[in-house]
Amino acid sequence: MTDTMTKREYRAAVRADRDGSGPTLEERPAARFPGATGAFQLLGEVLVIGLLITIASLPVVTLPAALAAGIRHVRRFIAAEHAPIAGFWRDVLRGSLGGAVIGLVALVAVGVLLLDIDLARSGFLPGGIVIEVIGWAGLAAVGLGILLAAGAWTPETGWRTAVRGIPAAVRDDVVGTAFVVATAGFVVVVTWMLPPLFIAAIGCAALAVVAVPQRTRRTR
């Protein structure tokens, strides 16, 4: 503590140094994602945002808007920006109209694909194995599309731009796309095993959508 620094200022500087929000007390660069330096704090925030996404997506068709709002909240949190819960609900409201359309289309697509898979397994259709594989691939594509669109949505650009950007996002980062598909599969499997785990799984999915593009930038 310097002579010109009060005890209160020093304690505030120590907290800023520990959580990475800077400035640092020692000669080292500030953390790239200062909000993510505390593991337990990050875990708690992921669980909270998972709960909020779950509540906001109870009508099912609102899942894209809820997920987009959750992803934006996670981005603000790991950047150590002001991330109030009220901001999450504002994003849900702003993305609800277009998000509901996407949610409805996705719901219909999932229903059709599940029906195809069920028929393929029944033996009534020729080439059942091929149809079942196509069905599962279609479900993976739906999950991928929802996650990528939700990750790209902003109130300024809207859902149309987010959806149009999906092909480019897949083309530019094939490995990252595989990670996102695995994330969607993780949410489905965990929820199938124990439905209440959806809260934690969807929160982890929001974090994954934020983390995967950052991984791409680090490896370039």
TrEMBL record:
Signal sequence interval, chain numbering: none
Keywords: Membrane, Transmembrane, Transmembrane helix
Lineage: superkingdom: Bacteria
Membrane-crossing residue ranges in chain numbering: 46-71, 92-114, 134-153, 174-192, 198-214
Chain spans, region Disordered: 1-30
Protein name (record): DUF624 domain-containing protein
Lineage: Bacteria, Bacillati, Actinomycetota, Actinomycetes, Micrococcales
